[in-house]
Prior knowledge:
Elements: E1 2-4, H1 12-35, E2 40-49, H2 57-68, H3 80-86, E3 90-96, E4 104-112, E5 115-124, E6 128-134, E7 137-141, E8 146-153, H4 158-168, E9 173-180, E10 186-193, H5 199-206, E11 211-218
Parallel strand pairs: 2-3
Antiparallel strand pairs: 1-3, 2-4, 4-5, 5-6, 6-7, 8-10, 8-11, 9-10
Helix pairs in contact: 1-2, 2-3
Amino acid sequence: MKNAVNVPSISAELLTTLRPFVTLVERMGALQAQLAEGAITEVRIDYSGAVTDYDVEPLTTAMLKGLLTPIKDGVNFVNAPFIAAERGIKVVESTSSTSEDFSTLIRLVVKTIEGENVVSGTIFGKKFPRILRINNFYLEAVPEGHNLLIHNEDRPGVIGMIGSTLGKHGVNIARMQVGQEREKGQNVIFLATSSPAGDEAIKDLMSLEQVYSVKRIEL
């Protein structure tokens, strides 16, 4: 089923039932907002598996809230769809009752005037959100807190250099997930920190020859 959506607000009862999924899609939206280069023109969210037993329209609302909050003040579950419409963002959702690898898989594609980004996620253990894919990289990242998304060359010693650089600036690493391409050569590191990394730490990371890009991701 495919359709452009005008998403209603979420009832308190349904929010309780869908809370893990709401958290997941809201943070997927926030992640996408921070990955986006240029104005967002279209959002597509694909729901597969067990999540389609529920009404997914409230989840689309939660995703829009997460997507728009880093961009505009005052976004909430009620006004997020209207703000998206005001900004000319096309919103499309699709559902499929089957999912090959996970009981539930949610895929979010965000298009901008510069290109598009793809993020996929699921729920582990019925309540733990996980990011499984960022573009061509596959990982199992916890979407919360202060993070750095580092795109780097896949070679021995690079992770150590990144850790040493952050340590020099007093940035404590809380978690680290490495995502690899299907074809080797590049990685992304989804790195959670106890506090936000400062500008000087980012600058020093970018000075490493093996690091291609660094983005702060607040979830």
